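For reference, the entry.
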Amino acid sequence: MTVTRTMLGRPLRGVAFDVAVSAAVALIGLAGAVNLAGGWAAVLVCAGMAVALLFRRAHPGAVTVAVAALGLVQVIAQWGPLPFDVAVLIALYSVVKYGKKLRDAVLAGVAAAVGVVLAAVQTPGVIIWWVTALWYALVTGAVWLVALNVRTRRLYVLSLEERAMTLEREREAESRAAVAEERTRIARELHDVVAHSMAVMIVQADGARFMLDRDPAQARTAVRVVADTGRAALEEMRRLVGVLRDAGPSGGDGLAVAADPEHRRLALAELPDLLARFGDAGLHIRDTVTGEPPALPPGLELTVYRVVQEALTNALKHAGVGAVVEVALAYTAEAVVVRVRDDGRGRPLVSPAPSGGHGLLGMRERVTVYDGSLTAGPRPAGGWQVEVRLPLPSDGATEVIAA
């Protein structure tokens, strides 16, 4: 990290350099005070130019006007060119390099051209004045061009710095957006895993509690479902953590969890196991498949799986144990249609799990990623229906979108 020392809001090195330049001009005037054409009056003009040069970086236009005015006094007094007139060239250089607009540099160049002519006319011992004017013009023009080149380079460097700062801000904004998107994805996955498993476990635990004395065998079955569901939820949580962790073996527990999002990705082949778990939880599920299942992108498969999982979880919580649920998958050449409907005639839960209100929202977010549509609402005959339509990729290419 570089620490820049400042004085009066300006870099200390720049202030020191300007003081040295101003002091050099003042010393030139003092050294020739005895021999100067204007005497001590010329020394005062020199002192005014030297003081003005102290502000040549912060106020280059004003400094140039002040130095030009003092030079005009020198012309009117007919002192001729003097050694400290180097201050005029320094002011010209400063306004070209540090001026806010190039127009100021052009005006300063015009004024310098007029000053070249006046200085050449007043130069003593000159036979052909225009030769001296040509010499003065070459020196002044060289100073102007050097300053213009430095100005162009300085502005180019400033533009590169500004562009780098803009890119840095854009990268930070993109990083914040990526973090927010990842948090949303994690929250959605956690809801899908935890809400489904907890709903099933609560239903079975309540059932086991009430059937423990009446039907011990059924109570044991319910407890087994609770244990199996908990193990499945733990496995999915480990999968989710594996997706979010860095690749490679971990520190000291001997576990190696892949960071590849495709690692242990849920697929449609696992839908029968999902339906079986909900059947064990007390739903009467009738599933139908229409059409030939195509090769779906992994992300689309996961979306179909999560939609069915969330719809069955809602049916278990709201329709209750014993409800009849129809799960229909229809495959066409253009889309996959998922329809889950229940009759709403199940046995209400004794202590239903509180709803976070994120189920339908999460489904809608997943479906929107693939330009699909979701409709959900009560049925006229009773119960609830969820219908999702997911268009298939037209080119059949495998997607790599992380759900």
